[in-house]
Amino acid sequence: MQCRESCGACCIAPSIQSALPNMPNGKPAGVRCLNLGEDYRCKIFGLPERPALCDGFKANLDVCGTSREEALQLISILEIETSPT
Question: Coil, helix or strand for 16?
Answer without folding.
Answer: strand
